[in-house]
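@here heads up, posting the sequence + SMILES for the ISJ run so it's all in one place. Ping me if the SMILES looks off, I pulled it from an old spreadsheet.
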Amino acid sequence: MTAAAFRQTPLFSRWRPIDAARPAMSASWWQWVASTDSLTARLMVAGGEKPFRVRLLRQGVGWPRQDEAQALGIGAKRYAWLREVALCLDGTPWVVARSVAPLSQVKGQRLECLGERSLGSWLFRQPGLVRGPLEVTTHSPQFASVNGIQEGCAWGRRSVFYHGCKHGSLSLLVQEYFLTAMADDLGLPSR
Ligand SMILES: C=C(O[C@@H]1C=C(C(=O)O)C=C[C@H]1O)C(=O)O
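bot reply: prediction finished. Complex structure tokens:
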């Protein structure tokens, strides 16, 4: 198997708790994948002089995937608010992310008009924010290739953020996939 093929071969299927994946994860990747503060802030620091940009791939209303609905505890036939982005350093996607929230909970939240501002810059300012447990995968996200981003994925992670506000409570599933371009630019191991 070539090195490139290896990097794109999933180690295991679907999502599993981060602790179960730890033996397969290098210490350098653990620093990234297990972090619970803002990824946007971390990417900006790691990128140094490189300009950071959120490229909006898609935002709107759609069906959640079954595993997403399950993670949010909603029926798969409930409409959801979906947002897909690429987090780019100097124009190169390092991370792609797909966030999902029950549509009924998004009404009146600032989320709808984020545009190319980072979700993290809004989310981590919310008082009483709680982050659920992290789960990881080595599968590549399909929405990246649909948008012409062909990079393999070193690690993907997801967790649900919860916060209550005067508009009601919000559960937001955030899925982030660390791309091989990021590993190459930062000199990280393949996994
Ligand atoms: C959740 C964060 O927000 C980041 C920005 C996102 C966006 O703009 O859609 C999505 C996932 C993130 O990695 C973060 O910075 O930790």
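MO: Strands lie at 16-17, 52-62, 80-89, 92-102, 130-131, 135-137, 153-165, 168-179.
MO: One more: The CA atoms of residues 108 and 167 lie 7 Å apart.
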